[in-house]
Amino acid sequence: MNVAVVGATGLVGSVMIKVLEEARYLPFDRISGFLPVASERSLGRELHFNNMPYPVISIAEAIERRPEIAIFSAGAAVSREFAPQFAAAGTTVIDNSSAWRMFDEVPLVVPEINAHLLTRSHKIIANPNCSTIELVLTLAPLHKAFKIKRVVVSTYQSVTGTGQKAVVQLNNERAGINGERVYPHPIDLNLFPHGGVFESNGYTSEEIKLLKESRKILGDNSINLTATVVRVPVTGGHSESVNVEFERDYDLEEVYKILSKTKGVVVQDDPEKSIYPMPRYAEGRDEVFVGRIRRDESQPNSLNLWIVSDNLRKGAATNAVQIAAYLVENELV
Asked: Helices marked H in 65-104 — which ranges?
């Protein structure tokens, strides 16, 4: 099986290659060819996969070579133009951008929740937003048990969610270097409630994604969700403060039990020992970490959670590779 990574030289693309190299989800013996794909300025550059050098090739060449799977992380514009061309050539596309997420015919997949929806006929599969993935992976089993009525979430998002230039801006500011800026404000020793573009209703595109994507993945349009996205000067991962109101009451011990048994979720919750999830320790990990689990005493049937995950791994690259592994294991490509 040939696997292409489109956007291989970018921040998420490089992590996708790393996750593939680890072979934790997709064994090397299932990959006969690796195709790193990037823009024209990177053509011919060598990238290493499994200790072997591979030259970066163009999208046109990759389409001609008809890989079984193409994992995209090159932005929505590239995905809108080229994902259908790969699909027409028989390739199954797993797209990390926002381009295809809300199309009814395109599955929006977190494998632990809804991979069972995938069939051979799905040639374009959408990877959710990084903040959405950690949120729904935590909420899905609680929704099944108690039925979610409303969610209030504030995200504290790593600069890595913006890309390599944002990381450079943060590091430059910390070093006192006057360099290129991708944010409208300094990010070091600062934070700002701005992720994505502002829409006419005052919400940002990132905040709206959380609502629409969560409803689609959980399969329930009755869920009400409101969000505030905050950019913070960290690189380890995205954090979320989440308040959930259920239709049915719950027992706190049952919540702990449910989350502890949820695949891909790790409970870190011992306040007396100052144990709770933090991006510093989530970095490089594939799990979603949950802590500060407590009853909201101001509202019936309500719960507070603190969720942290590495947005480049489970929030992007790992989730995409897990989708690819599911396709291979179930002979859907």
From this structure: 76-88
